Amino acid sequence: MKQKILIYTTFILYIICVLSILTFIVTGRKIDRKSKLMALKSSFKNEIAIVNISGPISLNLQPRKIFAYDSGDIVNKLRILGKKDSVKAIILRINSPGGSVAAVQEIYSEVMRLRQKGKIVITSMGDVAASGGYYVASACDKIVANPGSITGSIGVILQIGNIEELFKKIGVQTVVIKSGKFKDTGTMFRGITEDEKQIFQELINEAYNQFINAIVEGRKMEPDNVRKLADGRIFTGTQALKSGLIDKLGNDTDAINLAKELANISGEPKIITEIDPWDRLLGIFGETKTQTSVQEILNVRKLRFEYMLE
Questions:
Q1: What CA–CA distance (Å, rounded) separates 143 from 120?
Q2: Residue 181 gets which letter from DSSP?
Q3: Alpha-carbon span 289 to 244, nearest angstrom
Q4: Catalytic annotation present for 131
Q5: Residue 292 has what pLDDT?
Q6: Are 158 and 202 in contact, with CB atoms under 8 Å apart?
Q7: Residue 281 in 3-state DSSP?
Q8: pLDDT (0 to 100) of residue 307
Q9: What is the per-residue pLDDT for 295?
Q10: What is the pLDDT of residues 216-227, one digit of tens each?
Q11: Residues paired with residue 128 on neighbouring β-strands, in sequence order
């Protein structure tokens, strides 16, 4: 009897501890976000802000993913920084293989607006700033990369699975009732038709041309020169420098020094950095789900065109 009571007591204490930790994390994240916004609104004569873009870039994540960045959050931070007269330059610390087309374009457009306002924007590449990561970087005044940073991968990709034969083997049939011949285009439950391939290829070509035009506008490169590099291949930082895709080899310190130079900052500016310990804690407790529902696996409507390094 005493042993059972001890077991029950231990279990209850364990549950209380887990709930306390989760409450602490959630509350802390809210406080931390408010404190970061307060910090962004503080006044200082000359400031350089560092905005991190790490992992896949997506649009309005619900719920928020641990290892992906919501473009809306990034755009909001850039807008706040753009309104601060004391912020003379912004450094995008990019460590991303890319993301969805729309999410990447949202950030690109906001960076271009910052430049039009007279803000200096520099990219500092980490391990990877490829495909959509490079798309964002191309909007900046200058790009700094480590010699071994991976960049490039200029292009668009769309992948569609086909489980029709698998369903036949296990005796599962799907019934489709649709308003038009193309309404279920991209479904996993049947093969793709030639007409559908043509539709998707036209969409891919359009998104690809948007990528090319973005680089031409942001980097002031000739379209033909960009197309020669835009076949999906990747480059090291050293190769990218020779190809004209970046401006300088170096790390984040070099990026800060370049920002100071371009913004005509004398002396030491205040560096506004992003440090989110709550994300680190969630990295420990998050992503614990080991099972995926059938609905998640077979959700065929979530087609996304991506500027993504595969």
A1: 12
A2: T
A3: 44
A4: yes
A5: 39
A6: no
A7: helix
A8: 67
A9: 40
A10: 999 999 999 999
A11: 150
pLDDT of residue 38: 52
User: Which residues have C-beta within 8 Å of that of residue 1, sequence separation ≥ 6?
Assistant: none
CB 219 within 8 A of CB 192: no
Predicted pLDDT at 32: 53
Identify the active-site residue in 41, 83, 178, 183: 183
- Give the model's pLDDT for residue 72: 85
At 58, list the tokens. Answer: 């997506």
SS (H, E, C) 70-129: EHHHHHHHHHHHHCCCCEEEEEEEEEECEEEHHHHHHHHHHHHHHHHCCCEEEEEEEEEE
Angle made by CA atoms 177, 182, 183, in degrees to the nearest 5:
45
The CATH code of domain 43-288+303-308 reads 3.90.226.10
Q: Which residues pair with 65 in a beta bridge?
A: none
pLDDT, tens digit, 9 for 90 and up, residues 181-200: 989 888 889 999 999 999 99
- Please state at what angle helix 71-82 crosses helix 2-40, rounded to 10 degrees: 40
Helix, strand and coil in the chain, % to nearest 5: 45, 20, 35
Owner of token pair 């996304």: 304
Tell me which residue has tokens 């420098």.
Answer: 241
Q: Is 104 left (phi over 0), alpha (psi -120 to 50) or beta?
A: alpha
In angstroms, rounded to a whole number, what is the distance separating the alpha carbons of residues 71 and 199?
Answer: 27
**Residue 151 to residue 236: CA distance in whole angstroms:** 6
Domain boundaries, the chain: 1-40, 43-288+303-308
pLDDT for the residue numbered 291: 42
C-alpha of 120 from chain center: 21
The low-confidence residues of the chain, meaning pLDDT below 50, are 31, 41-43, 63, 66-67, 275-302
Determine the pLDDT at residue 186: 87
